[in-house]
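Milestone M4 deliverable, item 7.
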Amino acid sequence: MTSIVIVGTQWGDEGKGKIVDVLSDKADVIVRFQGGHNAGHTLVIDGQTIKLSLLPSGIVRENKLTIIGNGVVLDPQALSSEIEYLSKIGIKVTPKNLKIAENTTIILPLHKDLDLAREKRAGKAKIGTTGRGIGPAYEDKVGRRSIKLNDLNNLENIKDKIARILDHHNILREAYELDMLSLEDVYQYLLEIKKDIVPFIANTWRILRDMKQNKKKVLFEGAQGLLLDVDFGTYPYVTSSNTMPGQASIGSGVGPKYLDQIIGITKAYTTRVGSGPFPTELFDEAGKRLGDIGNEFGTVTGRERRCGWFDAVLVRQTAQISGIDMIALTKLDVLDTFEKINICVGYELDGKEIDYLPLSESLQDKIIPIYEEHDGWLTDTSSANELGDLPSNARSYIKRIEEIISTPIRIISTSPKREDIIFLERIF
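Output delivered:
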């Protein structure tokens, strides 16, 4: 295997950052292929916690090339802030270890303005967006009016593009009672960011082509989770991009045959941030304990995550739709103190049992989970490095999940630390 795609199988926050970090040790290139700085990846390295939103997790390792692909929407200010943050803790980001696709869409301040105005207007019906302009930037991309990174090398001829995007946004700004923007406002912003961004711009699809030809190991890093996919997630409570592994091809400029293996990251229980359906959500003491022990607060927003039991129906569904080859199960240690643990094995809908989540929002709201109860293990698992180190009830729990989701679990993470991980199969 030379090319591996990492995706989250739930609503994000599955622990992708750690798994990417661990696997990037053997990779030559790490690629972000969708989303923006609405992602949140947390790494714990030698006791130091590092939080990333935009840069690929592999950036923390020396002598690795990282790429931000064309499927990402990029906020230049967020990029500069993240580079500065890493510099302060001794991690240098330069054009030698970071390349950004020349056809990547730029998030402008006007995108953030629109994002926040919409959420404010929506009131109780709000989606729960991070307010970082991700959705409006993708809208402009598919509307054929976005400004790309390669436009920064041609600013003297870009004013027609700016006029086109303002024709659209000023109408919206008037409707949301925001100040009108002039062509010069946007032009000056682009002029200001140019010097910091241009050195990183590259023809990245050619770089990845050469990597494949030279049999280099490439790791594709997804953001958010499959249940937030704009087509197959819990729409409309989703992100604005496709989070499926197939997007790794589109969002980086490689063909689908470039991708050898897909690894789905799955938390040993379930969480989500923001609004939307959540069949196994807990509102009792068990839910609070999951949140407290698991430190379930959004990396990007700081919002408290909603917590619930493991939903095997959802993970099986996302695994089947996305073609996942194996599962990396994370945060098993969070369950160490639970005497009883439930797994959702099916749903009841209008008095009938079903084995999938309907894509209709109205039906999702009527879902009742069907649980299977398991004995907990009441043993600390955080130092386990071999499957045999885990208590028998923990192994039984893992095996049962594996059976229900019909996908092998080949990686088990038992803490945020790099070293607390069990590999049941060689990767790369």
